[in-house]
Each structure stands twice: as C-alpha cells, then as structure tokens.
Amino acid sequence: MDDGRLDMTDLFAFTTDGDRTVLIVNANPVAPTMGDSFHPDAVYRVNIDTDGDHRADVAFSFVFSPFQDGRQTFTLYRADGEQARSHEAGGREIVTDEPVAFGPEPVIIHSGPYRVSVGLRSDPFFADLEGIGNDFQWTGKDWGIDKNIFGIVLDMPSAELSPDPVIGVWGRISVRRDGRLTSVDRGAHPSVTAYFNQEDAKEAYNAGEPAEDWDTYLEPWSAVLAHTGGYDADGAERTLRTILPDVLRYDRSKPAAYPNGRTPTDDVETARIDMISRGKVAHANIPPHTDLLPEFPHLGTPHPTPSA
C-alpha cells in the first residue's frame, strides 16, 4: 500500500478489568516514517456483529482533523443497527475533537462508560518476516521488535455491545477520494490477505463485506491450501471455516486466545503458517513483546523514531 496511514495492521479483541471488552485496531506498519499522523480524509472503523449474520450491528468510527503544527484531534462515533452498515462515520458522537497522542505518554479519554486512547504506540506484532520471505528459513529476528504503529484503543463494559457474550469483530479503513468514500483495507484475521489473496484480488477484497466472503473465497482459498498444504476439498473447507468469513469470533464467556478473540501476546503468525502448511513448517519461536502495558491502553510506549 502506497500510503501507510491507510494500511490496517492488526485487530485485537479481549476482555479485561472484570468485564470490559477491549477493541484495538492498529494502522501504519512503520509509523511515523510512512505517515506522521492518521489520514484526515479517512474513516477508521471497528465493526461488531452481535447476532451471527456477519453484518455490522454496532460500528465505532474514528475521523481525524488535518495534522498541523504537530497536533491532530479525533472524533468518535457509535452507530447501531442499519446505520452501522454504512461505511460513513455516523451515529452519536462519543468524544469530539480529542487529542491524538504523539509523545511517549498515552492520552486516555473517559466518556460515559467508554475509555479511548489514540496515538503513536509500540507495535505488538511479532514475527520473523525475513524468514517468512525466504521460504521459512528462520533468522531468529523479530521484525516488529523496534517498530511503531498508530493505535486506536477502545474499551467499555461488555454489555454495551451485547448481552450475548458471542460477538464478531472486524476492522475497516475507508478514504474519501474525489468526493467518494472508498474502502481501502478491511479484515479481522491476521495474515489472511498476505497468504490467500493474489495482488490483483486485494482491491475487490477490501471493498467487500464479510457476509459475502464464504461464497466468494471458498474456492480460490481452497486452491491455496491444496497447493501449500496438500489439503483435499473437505479438509480445506473445514480449515477455512476458521477464517471465512473474515470476522474475528469472540465468545467473551471464555478466555481470549486466538482464534477466540485475540490478545497482543497470541502467536498468530505461527497459527497461520501451521494452517497453510498443514503443520509441516517448523516454528520460528519468536516470543511476544515485553513492553505491553498491564493496563489500558495496553499497547507499549513508542520506540524512538529512527533518524532520517
């Protein structure tokens, strides 16, 4: 993606502090060098399905002011029901014109039952990407160990989303171009597009809706698994039910551990490599990051930005 500000990197969903649901969506894989702020013409969104039909019933949308003199603000909206299915930021305002944090300390905003923090943070993603790119010849190097992202962290009492503990979560980034809002990135399960989508299929994928995923991608993604792991048709279909539709399912009555939700310490890259190789690739054994905060907003202090 040419504009790192529009590149959604990871999505997390877990519970903490008794019974608060935490939702995190990160963007910009090497912030701030690929973009020094959030995109002012974009809508950054977390969608929640509460009834199992893979369509948004609740949506939290974040929009941002232009970055000027080292400052930026954001406004957060909550939409429900049919309004949640529009990609536009709509519904009621939860917070208005609050600051994005660009320094080492997070800014935590309280609004009714919600807590929210937005800004530059340490990237929790851990994986040997160099080894992955070299046919799984592991180097022992964690690509993400010194990287930053722009993080959006929101939590609330779990009942604010649904009395039913089972929810589905996915993220989306849309940007306004020539007066039209276009979805440029979406997803829930880690490394799905990297392993399953050809480059020429990614634009259509990002514009699509999870409710359409099974019919659209079962056949081509089964072919990927047949090629990478020797799956037969039945085995591929059973396996793909974990990631199709591309919605992160989370039963909040059970501990969060991917693929039941996702915490920042879950080794999702190993899980994906096990899936595509049918367990035939040795594990890289890259450990989770140790700079995560034990309390809200959970993401670690940002690393110093490398000099140009």
Task: Explain what you see.
- The chain is an alpha+beta fold and 308 residues long.
- The chain has a domain of 200 residues.
- The strands form two sheets. Strands 3, 4, 5, 6, 10, 11 and 12 form a seven-stranded antiparallel beta sheet that branches. Strands 1-2-9-8-7 form a five-stranded antiparallel beta sheet, with no helix packed on it.
- β1 and β2 form a beta hairpin.
Short description:
Helix content is 17%, strand content 32%. With 308 residues, the protein is an alpha+beta fold.
Task: List the defining traits of the structure above.
308 residues, alpha+beta, seven-stranded antiparallel sheet, five-stranded antiparallel sheet, 12 strands, 17% helix, globular
